[in-house]
Write a structure and sequence with these properties.
The structure is a single chain. The chain has 360 residues and is of the alpha/beta class. It has two domains: 7-152 and 332-345, Rossmann fold (3-Layer(aba) Sandwich); 155-328, 2-Layer Sandwich (Dihydrodipicolinate Reductase, domain 2), CATH 3.30.360. The chain contains eleven helices and 13 strands. It has helices spanning 17-26, 47-50, 85-94, 111-118, 136-144, 154-168, 198-201, 215-226, 257-260, 263-281, 330-345, and strands spanning 7-12, 32-38, 75-78, 98-101, 132-133, 148-150, 177-183, 206-207, 234-240, 247-254, 287-289, 307-312, 319-326. A seven-stranded mixed beta sheet has the order 8-9-7-10-13-12-11. A six-stranded parallel beta sheet has the order 2-1-3-4-6-5, sandwiched between helices. The structure holds NADP nicotinamide-adenine-dinucleotide phosphate. NADP nicotinamide-adenine-dinucleotide phosphate is lined by residues 12-19, 39-42, 65, 79-82, 84, 102-103, 153-154, 186-187, 189-191, 328-329, 332-333.
């Protein structure tokens, strides 16, 4: 027995990668029971038939998204493609159910921008203002009072956590930001796609979306907020790397001239940058600033909710480089969603999420 209440959770889209990752993590959460799990194509099928990794852990069968079991939940996660949550959210919120959307339906505040990037009309623009962007390191207080949380995208999580201290302290030119990011193939979900076949991905490396990616407006929106509400100019290029999980973002920014020329920065700039990062994240349970000079690896966060960061300044340069790694399915999706659920439910933020990463 502890002081916290038990809650029931539902997952819409429980047969995809983030859905089954939610399930794996929630099975380790002491206060949550998953009572409804949907898949249109697998309705009626026991979950363990599809995912033998979960045998002996649960006894659940997929239901369809309109099953009444969903309306009996305290919180519902949408691990679905863009455009699904926005059609179901209003009725569920009306019933007093909290919602965490892992897709992008509620991430952008500007409906015209959302419709331009997501190429469909928004079904409930009236909820965009109310929805809280679920990056706990920035929005913890608002998340604690929210009934609708827009869980950040995977790249946006790695990129924003990396740039945040630089912008918050006004150290870098906001028009000089570059995010060169790489993701494993699970970032694209479990749906069959020719370009994601083993033979296409293995031993191969490519950029995509360099001319415009949906995560660009989301990252820019978030960075502008920490840049005192002033817009930033960001170049963002995502890449696909032949691995299953993990995101590695290499971030570049130029120190403002007045900062770079400060006497103390000339002498001990590296140390100052390191202290700023350590200070900003010292009370964050899931953001780990590595010792000066380190290079974080995606292999050090696999299966965990950690973001590991390092900040470096090439010798005699006005550039700052930040290296940021996360597991796209955990801190980039399901883990962060559970972190948000914990905050919304009054549980300790790290509850059920402190399992160490897998290695190797
Ligand atoms: N993969 C990542 O690393 C990652 C990271 C951050 C955010 N996200 C976002 O999280 C969401 C889920 O991603 P994923 O990678 O888990 O996708 P996925 O593997 O393709 O799974 C999608 C799930 O949604 C269900 N679904 C599809 N269309 C539906 C509809 N119209 N109504 C109800 N359910 C529907 C699917 O099952 P049925 O078709 O059988 O119903 C399946 O269970 C996406 O919006 C994605 O952008 C993904």
């Amino acid at each position: 027995m502890n002081e916290y209440r038990e809650i029931k959770a539902g997952i819409v889209g429980g047969s995809g990668y983030t859905g089954v990752e939610l399930l794996r993590l929630l099975l380790q959460h002491p206060q949550v029971t998953v009572t409804a799990l949907t898949s249109r194509s697998e309705a009626g099928r026991p979950v363990v038939e599809l995912f033998p990794s979960l045998r002996q852990q649960l006894d659940l069968t997929y239901v369809s998204p309109n099953d009444t079991a969903l309306t009996d939940c305290d919180v519902i996660f949408f691990a679905t493609p863009n455009g699904v949550a926005m059609n179901m959210a209003p009725a569920l919120l009306e019933k007093g159910i909290k919602i965490i959307d892992l897709a992008a339906d509620f991430r952008l505040k500007d409906v015209r921008q959302w419709e331009r990037w997501y190429k469909q009309p928004h079904a409930c623009p009236e909820l965009l203002n109310e929805a809280v962007y679920g990056l706990p390191e920035v929005n913890r207080k608002a998340i604690s009072q929210a009934r609708l949380v827009a869980n950040p995208g995977c790249y946006p999580t790695a990129v924003q956590l990396g740039f945040l201290p630089l912008l918050k302290h006004g150290l870098v030119a906001p028009d000089s930001l570059i995010a060169d990011a790489k993701s494993g193939a699970s970032g694209a979900g479990r749906t069959l796609r020719e370009d994601l076949l083993f033979s296409e991905v293995h031993g191969n490396f490519r950029a995509y979306g360099a001319g415009g990616h949906r995560h660009h407006p989301e990252i820019s929106q978030g960075l502008a907020i920490v840049n005192d509400g002033k817009p930033v100019s960001l170049t963002f290029v995502p890449h696909l790397v032949p691995m299953v999980r993990g995101i590695h973002a290499t971030l570049y920014a130029r120190l403002k001239e007045e900062i770079n020329h400060r006497e103390n920065f000339k002498i001990s700039g590296d140390f100052i940058l390191q202290s700023i990062y350590e200070d900003m994240y010292k009370s964050e349970c899931f953001v780990d600033v590595l010792p000066q000079g380190s290079h974080p690896e995606t292999g050090s966060v696999l299966g965990s909710n950690f973001c590991r960061l390092s900040v470096l300044r090439p010798e005699s340069s006005d550039q700052v480089i930040v290296l940021s790694v996360i597991d796209n399915l955990v801190k980039g999706a399901a883990g962060q969603a559970i972190q948000n659920m914990n905050i919304m439910s009054g549980f300790p933020e790290e509850m059920g999420l402190m399992g160490p990463p897998m290695y190797p």
